């Protein structure tokens, strides 16, 4: 994409901004080592198995919390996104789409990036926005999603699963995108944040 990208809503130039998404985890060995190292300091701050460390309760708790916070920071997904300061819109480019719109590890739900790309390729609904890269009209799709914390589990009794299903609310979100440029436009950044959460899934049909 060109150096200066115009907002599809006509607000003017968009800016690249680095974003740390703490709701999406990435594999960082040092980050997870910090988290695991911090657990003993918090779980048993006055009875650590390390003789060379202080036995001060407050100091040990501080070390443990510090390690957990630093580890959580390192394992959070960091991306550089195009954002509009005026309308709060957001553009996801190809790499960010793959990083942020994934499926669950067990394959119980759709891979969000693949689902959205397939839907865009078959969409007949023309968006009112033009692609800021190629200038062609984008396509609009409606993506169903739900809270993945209520997904079926073979170990959960049927009656508990029925109650969970009753509390699950299916929702949809509208997305504009350009298949050729592999780019997605969210009118509001909060829509992308909601869709990219690890707990948000696109259920398999």
Give the tags:
single chain; elongated; 205 residues; eight-stranded antiparallel β-sheet
The percentage helix is 25-40%
Overall, the morphology is: elongated
Write down the Rg.
21 Å
Query: What percentage of amino acids are in beta strands?
Result: 25-35%
Total E-strand runs: 8
What does this structure look like?
The chain has 205 residues and is an alpha+beta fold. It has two domains: 30-74; 88-201, no CATH class. It has helices at 29-43, 57-74, 94-100, 112-122, 158-167, 189-196; strands at 15-25, 76-83, 90-92, 126-130, 137-147, 171-178, 183-186, 200-201. Strands 1, 2, 3, 4, 5, 6, 7 and 8 form an eight-stranded antiparallel β-sheet that branches. Helix 1 (29-43) packs antiparallel against helix 2 (57-74). The two termini are 34 Å apart. Residues 151-168 have low confidence and may be disordered.
Quick overview of this protein structure:
The chain is built from six helices and eight strands.
Would you spell out the secondary-structure blueprint of this structure?
Blueprint: E1 15-25, H1 29-43, H2 57-74, E2 76-83, E3 90-92, H3 94-100, H4 112-122, E4 126-130, E5 137-147, H5 158-167, E6 171-178, E7 183-186, H6 189-196, E8 200-201
Antiparallel strand pairs: 1-2, 2-3, 3-7, 4-5, 5-6, 5-8, 6-7
Helix pairs in contact: 1-2
